[in-house]
Amino acid sequence: MSTPWRTCLVVIARNESAHIQRLLESVRPFVDDMLVLDTGSSDNTASLAAACGARVAQLSWPDDFSVARNAALALAAADWHVVLDADEWLIEGGDVLGALRHTPPDFVGTLALEDRFDDGVAHARLSRVLPGSVRYAGRIHEQPVHSLPVRPLALHVGHDGYLGQRLKDKQGRNRRLLQAAIQDHPQDAYLWYQLGKDAFVYEDFASAEEAFATCASCLSGDPAWWPDLVARRLFALKRLGHHAAGVVFAESQLGLCANSPDMFFALGDLLLDWAAEEPAQAELLLPMIEDAWRRCLEIGERPDLPGAVAGRGSHLAAHNLALVLEGTGRADEAQLLRQQFPTG
Questions:
Q1: Where are the alpha helices (DSSP H) in 146-281?
Q2: What predicted TM-score, i.e. pTM, was given to this entire model?
Q3: In the beta sheet, which residues pair with residue 35?
Q4: Contact at 8 Å (CB) between 271 and 305?
Q5: Cβ neighbours of residue 140 under 8 Å, at least 6 residues apart?
Q6: Which residues pair with residue 115 across a beta bridge?
Q7: Contact, 128 vs 82, CB < 8 A?
Q8: Are residues 200 and 284 in the same domain?
Q9: What is the 8-class DSSP label of residue 4?
């Protein structure tokens, strides 16, 4: 019989009474223990967590996510730590969590995160299944530090922390922490990327463009998140009315982002906005717009790419392309396209 390894769900939470039970109940059948570190709730997060069978500890918020994560990991003290946030929940993969009890903790496991926004769904794959000795670094958007192999696991997790009022409640918190982290590490491209994302989410597109441009100037290598930055930067440049600059930037990224439907989707959107703003350019721009959205459909969905938005490699691109086809007298082709890529 194989050696059992103890597994523990590890959560840091603050004022999460609306969500904590959903998380704990989704994971509880598949782990040996659950540890919730409450970082200063004024609601009944702690009592709800305890009622679900979690061990609850208290920590004054240290203004540093890695400090809080590491404190929770130390208290959990398991062979395997499954690190989730209170506004996440397990959609599928309980059998995979259960199997960790008979799996040596000699690798880091990734899970598929479905990030739900008011206007769609984005995908990411994150390292959240950690051997007991692994710890985090970074004030915000913290990352586990290790030299272990990384394996994708068939775990599907949902996240709805950026819907509606939840998004408003978080405004300013991450930006403040990111700016403090950048003061300590001004050449860290990843921190500038995250700062740009934060500004982008709150539609501060001028600040987003400034952060994304700084990120590009600091960048070395070809990080997995780069196509997400490119797509977001193109949307920001569109909203700022910097269409020509967006096209120049997109052309410089065609090699690195050749397999990103999000980049081509954003390019088509920017070009369409330019054509609407300057009708005299429409004849020149429409073939480029059509080519961009056709390229999305050729690539198809890429949920494995960080930040990939569902539909940009299928029905969303097809819908936009069909509108262009109808507007240029090709209604029959547009109808066939809609049949091939139905929405929902």
A1: 164-170, 173-184, 189-201, 205-218, 226-240, 243-252, 261-277
A2: 0.88
A3: 10, 55
A4: no
A5: 64, 65, 174, 177, 178, 181, 194
A6: 122, 159
A7: yes
A8: yes
A9: P
Instruction: Name the helix (H) or strand (E) containing 98.
Output: helix 94-99
Q: Which of 105-109, 174-178, 203-207 has the lowest mean pLDDT?
A: 174-178
Residue 240 near residue 209, CB atoms below 8 Å: yes
Unique residue bearing structure tokens 């690798």: 107
Phi, psi of 308 (to 5 degrees): -60, 130
Q: Is the pLDDT of residue 1 over 60?
A: no
- Rounded to whole angstroms, how far apart are CA atoms 79 and 83? 13
Tell me the C-alpha distance between 155 and 136, whole Å.
21
Tokens of 41: 């709730």
Q: Is residue 273 a contact partner of residue 265, using CB atoms and an 8 Å limit?
A: no
Q: What is the largest CA-CA distance in the chain?
A: 75
**Side chain identity at 83, as an amino acid letter?**
V
- Tell me, what amino acid is at 225? W
220 — phi, psi (to 5°)? -135, 135
What rounded mean pLDDT belongs to the chain?
Answer: 94
| Structure-token pair, residue 164 | 């509606």
Both 107 and 221 in one domain: the answer is: no
Q: Cα(first)–Cα(last) distance of the chain, in Å?
A: 47
Check whether residue 177 and residue 158 sit in a common domain.
Answer: no
Which of 166, 183, 212 lies at the terminal end of a domain, its last residue? Answer: 166
Q: What is the C-alpha separation between 78 and 82, in angstroms, rounded?
A: 10
81 and 12 in a common domain: yes
One domain for residues 85 and 120: yes
Check: CB of residue 40 under 8 Å from CB of residue 108: no
